[in-house]
User: Fold DNA ligase from Polarella glacialis.
Amino acid sequence: ETILTNAFRSMLARAAQASELEAACYLFAPAKDAQSGGHRMRPDWAEGGRPLSISRGSISSALLEATGASRAEMNRMYNQLHEIGEVALALRERGGRQRLLRLPAPLTAGSVHRTLLGLADLSGSGVEKTKTQRLLGLLRAAEGSELKWLVRTFLPHMAAGISLEASVLPALGAAWVIQAAQTSSVQVRATADEIREAQDVVRTGYALRPDVRALVDALLEGGLARVRTACTLHAGVPMQPMLAKPCTSTEELLKRLIGAFPSSDNGVVRISAEFKYDGQRAQIHRSAAGEIRVYSRKLDDMTSKYPDVVAAVRRCARSQQAFVLDAEIVAVVSRSTGDAALGEAARPGGVEIAAFQTLSTRKRKHVTEVNAASAAVAVKLFLFDLLLRGDEVLLQWPLVQRRAAMREEFAAEADVLDFAEAIDLDATAIVSAAHGATDMPSASASAPSASAAAVLDEALQRSVAGSCEGLMVKRLDGPYEPSTKRSDSWLKLKKDYVESMGDSLDLVPIGGWRGSGRKSRWISPWLMATFDPEEGTFGSVCRVMSGFSDKFYKENTIRYLGSELSALGKASDAAATEAATEAEQEAEEDAEEVGDAASDGEGGSDLDVCGAGGESDDVGSQGGGGKSALRLHRAAPGVDTGDKPQFWFQPSEVWEIRGADITISPKHMAAKGLVDPQKGLSLRFPRFMKKREDKRLQDATTPQQLAAMFLKQTQQR
DNA sequence: ACTGTCTGCCCC
DNA sequence: ATTCTGC
DNA sequence: GCAGAATGGGCAGACAGT
Assistant:
């Protein structure tokens, strides 16, 4: 953070232009997140805004050409240095600088930014070649250690994630106050409070108006005061949506909502339990000019995917004012068709909420208002918040008032648009004065009410019966807090969080992969299966990586593979072996060979020759020392899966796995033939709960049981 | 033209 | 999405 | 209490290879 702040300070001191500051912001934080990689070079919601992705291939090709090195040389360097930026420098040293006819112009943040922006716009065939050429241009122009940083910037995943909103922009804010204080005649140093305040202003401004250029412009023109006024919610510019925190019981939920912030109503806390529809979040804007746009939770522009939503909102708006809505789009199927198929008496039509999986089959491109109803999946919109009306920003209004304004401003339309179902209640117990609660004043007034918990429980049941995931429970007196952080005044209570609800399966680990990063010494994820004792078959259901403690990983990796995986297993060849000897590792051959197989992403072509065959079926061995008793050369007999794990295991025990829903899967083959002739069943959001030491293979969930659970779930809808 | 594989600030 | 760990 | 990591299912699209 200090480094970033100092970098911005020096730019500000030299009166850098807005375009340079903007470029620097993006270049300091090239990766959106560790999940997807990809480079962000402009706001996603902007016209043509799309992330830039540069393949490893393009980077290394450009690097080879720029340095004149051979591929073998590069690999050798990589094995020594383990970091591609350093490799780039070393290769340039070694190869000597290539002589160019014309010296390229020195790089600036702005010029690099512009080039990368250009790359993001490429498409069609031959893009990789063009990308390589343009990267080459940048690499040739790089001086000194610029080369190292340039190469690192190209990578989709930098070793350390630096986030634009969490690190870079706050640093810019800090730099601004520090410089301002220094140049003012009165004050020399900015206080810690001033710095914190500045960071906050910038963070908030960006959450409300995620536009780096607008932020930089405001800062340069009028400092933090200008950021406050200019970087606020605008119709047509999506803001960070407000997020909710998960909560696992109604009692806990009440406590947390009451504690979120003090009540302004004599200790009484009113809350609203809204249905949590299982669809896609949508932030819908209508500008003053009347243009309607739909944005995703990640601020992507989805307008072209949902022309029918746009039309519905236009029809249902009671006025011509600008607005910003928060809503959920869900898939629906017409009710009459379903009933007709069952030969029931025709009902007056209407629609039913369909599963999320149905929504996801909707076309993403070329959806028109005309084909939306026939060619694409039909959808219904559930509104739950209004953040802007006319030129009034409603973010600070309490939810009750925002909701009232929303209901004034829009009219529901059958099958197409409605308000999210909501049940309002007091979270606090009403401790009447008659009971003489005078000696315990505020504490008693703020106690969670037992009847409130009961109301919530019932609402939860109803929401599930109504094809919802559960509840969103909100403080009725709370503001809307656009943020990358989750707020305490919105909590989500999903059926699968609650002990007694949701699907819990008893599955058998049949395979696994080597983990990466902090899990690189362990098996992660694990491949889980049902067991059919009649047929002796195992059908894969899901991979699991969530819910395991480090201790569990360690113990069970040893149990299944005989030892932990070598930490050095990542490097590919001789270099790894050399290094291994010097290390503390008593690198068993087993682990070493495992490392090789995992070497470059896919690997796995060379077949396992593992030391321990699948000889022992005895589950008894608590595998502390010896060879792995549980690893197999190939899938155990009877295994059916579309997945291909790096390691296969002898099925031998039962683990409890929880999930939210059961889905029809193209990859997992459990219960194949029972619901669909080709496809099996899988689990959405799978996570490990605990080992079932009390259960044997024969007690694992069977394909028949799984199919029955699936059918019950679909009937509920 | 067809199929297979991989990617996505994907959506959850 | 979910979950765990380290700060 | 929060940020950061490491990954889940599954879809339409895009691109590569035949």
